[in-house]
Design goal:
It contains 14 helices and 16 strands. It is of the alpha/beta class. Strands 6-7-8-9-10-11-12-13 form an eight-stranded parallel barrel, surrounded by five helices. The longest helix is centred in the middle third of the chain and has 19 residues, at 239-257.
């Protein structure tokens, strides 16, 4: 039963929960962590862990996308970022890392807007994706809905394996009186590669995205470490509720489509190993990590984290946020860990949590019992 809260005489709303509000409950059976599988398959691609690197310039460069692929995940390159605007983005990345050392700074934002005002160079899209392909890992690139129609042919010609359409919020059909709308159902149907699309934060928009033929739906917006969407636009849906709602849409769509399975991918607000555990427990198949991977010593951001929204020309909705570094990408994902706060050995922690709860793979773990508890008690 959906719980409605009376906000005032004229408005009611559902009560929603963040991942911090959720706790996983162990069962009567435990397992050896070595017996637990955290492998993930989407379309024809199989991965050793349910992790996607977020297409953010502080997280994924061609080199880190390759490194993540070799460690068993999938890196997604931002095809509207610094690597497709600059032949050598190293000087501007160093400049961003040396900005005024504060999270909120109008001068930093203004300079970010100037840096990202350089035009996207299609030949660099081809070059960067070719670099990833030559390394023998899955090639994935991301565009926003606004630029998908303009650059998708270049992306496909470069030989991308997985195409990601990612925005603050993405609908199945964007309506505009000023430009030709992107009809995702028609667009995805005509592509020869699997598409992951989002964000979405509710049952109905996610169900419509699933009906477009997408292989995966990204859950969430406004909840990441570098995002200020909540402050700037008043838009936010707590992640535990959003994942659960969209997992229900996945179940209903399976019935509607005769068994077609669409992957639910938590994107935003998943910054520690405990967050990953709870996101999967709520029904996610995989997680898209930004801040968690930005803490790796190889990350382009050098201990700072920002997204494309932070450099939007008219309405910036993000800050360059300090996340620090905790170890190599290997240590962040697979350990060994020397931190007690869930920022390293993320996959080891996931396997141990699943083993402690008695589950042997991610699909089983989605059935684990959870409790709602005040954050101070978790």
């Amino acid at each position: 039963m959906t719980q409605q809260i009376e906000i005032g005489r004229g408005k009611r709303g559902r009560q929603a929960f963040a991942l911090d509000d959720i706790a996983v409950v162990p069962t009567r059976r435990t397992r050896d962590p070595e017996d637990v599988s955290i492998g993930w398959q989407i379309d024809a691609f199989t991965f050793e862990m349910p992790v996607i690197g977020a297409p953010m310039d502080s997280v994924m460069s061609p080199d880190t996308a390759i490194a993540l692929g070799k460690l068993g995940g999938m890196g997604v390159l931002n095809l509207e970022g610094l690597w497709t605007r600059y032949e050598d983005p190293t000087p501007v990345i160093e400049e961003i890392a040396a900005f005024e050392p504060t999270n909120y700074s109008p001068s930093n934002t203004r300079r970010l807007q100037e840096i990202y005002s350089q035009p996207i160079q299609p030949e660099l899209i081809t070059e960067r994706l070719a670099q990833i392909r030559e390394a023998g890992v899955v090639v994935a690139g991301s565009l926003t809905p606004q630029h998908t129609r303009e650059y998708y042919e270049t992306v496909l010609a470069a030989g991308v394996d997985m195409f990601v359409i990612r925005g603050t919020t993405v609908s199945a059909e964007h309506v505009s009186q000023n430009r030709e709308p992107l009809d995702l159902k028609k667009f995805i149907y005509e592509l020869d590669v699997p598409v992951i699309v989002g964000g979405a934060a509710g049952y109905t928009p996610a169900l419509h995205l699933m009906r477009t033929g997408a292989a995966g739906v990204l859950v969430g917006f406004g909840g990441g470490a570098s995002s200020t969407t909540r402050r700037a636009m008043g838009i936010r849906v707590p992640m535990a509720t959003a994942i659960s709602d969209i997992a229900e849409a996945r179940r209903d769509y399976m019935d509607e489509s005769g068994g077609r399975y669409v992957h639910v991918i938590a994107d935003g607000g998943v910054g520690t190993s405990g967050d990953i555990v709870k996101a999967l427990a709520m029904g996610a198949d995989a997680v898209m990590l930004g801040a968690a991977l930005a803490r790796a010593t190889e990350a382009p951001g050098r201990g700072w984290h920002w997204g494309g929204e932070a450099a939007h020309a008219d309405m910036p909705r993000g800050d360059r946020t300090e996340v620090g570094t905790v170890g190599t990408l290997q240590e962040v994902l697979w350990g060994p860990s020397h931190h007690t706060n869930g920022t390293s050995n993320l996959m080891g922690a996931l396997k141990r949590a699943m083993a402690t709860s008695g589950y042997s793979d991610v699909k089983e773990f989605q059935k684990v019992e959870v409790l709602v508890a005040p954050t101070r008690e978790i």
